[in-house]
Design goal:
Layout lengths: L5 H30 L4 H27 L1 H28 L4
């Protein structure tokens, strides 16, 4: 039977949740700024590069310090935050409450 390191998994999940929130808040900020400029490609590219580098860099540290179970928790947390973020974005788009 596989022994699951729940402490490492929950640590990874907590860090992944925080990083997921930062990632999607950064996405929202980048899109809002890009929509206000005449050349949005530069802002979107910089935003994506910074967000991806931060997410992957922190993920690398989580896996190297906490092991594979921490990495799994980190990835699952990101997917959960992504599900929540996309659900909220869709509900705002349907109701027209987006600013």
């Amino acid at each position: 039977m596989i022994d699951i390191d729940w402490t490492a998994a929950m640590l990874g999940f907590g860090i992944g949740t925080a990083m997921g929130i930062v990632f999607f808040v950064g996405l929202a900020v980048g899109i809002r700024r890009a929509l206000r400029t005449k050349t949005p490609i530069g802002i979107l590219t910089l935003s994506a590069a910074v967000r991806l580098a931060a997410f992957l860099g922190v993920g690398w540290v989580v896996v190297s310090q906490g092991g594979p179970w921490a990495g799994l928790g980190y990835g699952i947390a990101f997917l959960v935050v992504r599900l929540v973020a996309t659900t909220l974005a869709r509900s705002e788009a349907v109701t027209g409450d987006a600013s």
